[in-house]
Structure formats: C-alpha cells, structure tokens
Amino acid sequence: MAETRLNVGDLAKLGWLADAPLFIDGEQVKGFYDAVVRPEAEEKKITLSLKSLEAEKTTVGGEVQAEVSVAKWLTTIFPFLDAKVGGKATGASEEQTASEETRTIELQPISSSQRQLVQLTLHYLLGLPSRLKIVSDPGDPSWSEAAFIQALPRALVFIDLPPKTYFVPMAVELSNGNVIPIHEEVAKAFTGGEKNPNPRPAYDLPEAKKQEGWDRYWKWFADHFKSIAAMETVENLVREGGSRIRWIDYRVPLFSRGTFVKMAHLHVCGRGEHDTGVFAYNLIERGYRYGVRVVGTLKSDPDLNVLAIFEK
Questions:
Q1: What Cα–Cα distance (Å) separates residue 37 from each residue in 48, 97, 106?
Q2: Do β-strands 259-268 and 303-311 pair in parallel, antiparallel, or remain unpaired?
Q3: For 177-209, what is each residue's pLDDT tens digit?
Q4: Is the same domain home to 134 and 196?
Q5: What is the extent of the structural domain holding 215?
Q6: Is residue 3 in a domain?
Q7: Do 157 and 14 share a structural domain?
C-alpha cells in the first residue's frame, strides 16, 4: 500500500479550527489528547517536523520556500503554536525535498479543549496522515469503508456537511438519567399523524431481508425529513423531561449525486453543559440551511463520536 501523504492544501482546509466552535466535547477531547499527544511530564514539549507535508516546491533565488509558508500560516491562525524555522535548503531544483529542512512545530502541554483539538489535528496530520480523513463529499464511500474504520489507531475525521443536510434525532439522555426515544415522535411529526408511519423492521427476519428492511427504514427518514418538525420535537421532549441533554444521537443521510447511499450516525455528548438550542435550532435547523463542519473519531456503522461542531 502506498504511503498516505497530505499536503499544504489539506492543512489550509482546516483553517476553520481557528473559529470558536458551536459545540465541543471538552471531556472527550481531553481524554483523546491525553492518550495520544500529551508529553509524559508537564514541562516537556513534543516536536513535530513539517517535512512530512507535501507542497508544490517554488524556488525564489535558489531557496525552497514552501515550508516557510506552512510555518507562517500555522502560527498566524494558531499563534499559541511555536514554529521553529531552521536552516534553508539551497538547491534550486524542483526535486529538492523538504527532508533538508529543519522546520518544526512544538506542542506544549495545554488545558484548553479547543487548543488540544488543534494539537491533536496536527499530530495526526503530520505523524499519522493515513488515519486522518478530510471529507469534502460526505457521500464519498472511502471514509466509511470497514477497512479504514477498523484500522488502528482510531481515525480522526473532518466532515464538511453541506446545506440541506438532514439531522434526524433518534434518542436523547437527559441529565436526570431519563433516556427518551425520539425516532417515533419525529416520524409522526414529519407526517402530521398520531401513529408512527415508519415502524422498525422485525428482528426475526432472515438476514438478507433484515438489511433490506433497515435500508428502507432509514431511507424513509431521508424522504420525509422536515427540519422544523425535527427541531421542535427535540425542544418539546427536552422541555417535558425537565432537564439538560447528556447525550443525543442523530442519523444523517448520505447522498452521492442526489442518490441516497446510507445513514451515518452521530453521537454527541452535551454532558448537561450546553443549551438545548445547540442541539435543536443551531444544529438541526441552521445546519439544514447552511451546513456545518464536524470533527470526530470514527467507529463502525459508520458512527462518529463527535468532538466538535463548527458553524458556517
């Protein structure tokens, strides 16, 4: 298998990490950061070399300039990073490689969830590029294939969800411990009826028929989605439950050239720290109108443990 390499263009696509997130799961980000990035001692630093980034090599006066621009770009949008720009490559050839450069980024121990997320991203981008995926087309199957999902370490995925994305709420747990199924209420709200028009497939069906039934079940939500109805269902159920959201799960239909492909699953842990509007109006309604950007860790289904959500 060919080595996976990302380039400067991939890095630039992630400039939205410099924005304030609509939602960030600080506890999950911290746990992931501690497991993957944090130095063994608080006073130590981790140094990442920029030479692993591919770029179109441009020469000015015999100097290779690509890596200089990367370091400058990084420290402009993320000024808390420490970029060290060392000796310059002196060859004027297009074949001059970045391995002759001594340009690095230093990651220092930090406690801010948003900065930890940036450092996690750089760690994956520069050190584990084969386990990071930047998804501009959610319908592209490459990010949700079983082989990619199941490889180790766990994949970090950045998905740009476009306008007209359907966030179908499935279930929610409140801070008081109540777990509330949402899917039946949403199905009724989509059609305005009092009876669930989309019952789940029977569990005792033969395997082939079972998959067919689930495909039909999920596609129904994509065919009947109404963002206002989904938003109001979440608002009403949480209000009646009298508590804040601990976690909420969504199904998101994925399309390729207008054709339904599959449902992705999003698991979002509010931990009782966010207003209901984050998970109802801002994600379901505004997300439908304008799209959102989501970063998370990937597991089978495809299923995303959401680390952060950014508005457009």
A1: 11, 27, 12
A2: parallel
A3: 999 999 999 999 999 988 999 999 988 888 878
A4: no
A5: 168-290
A6: no
A7: yes
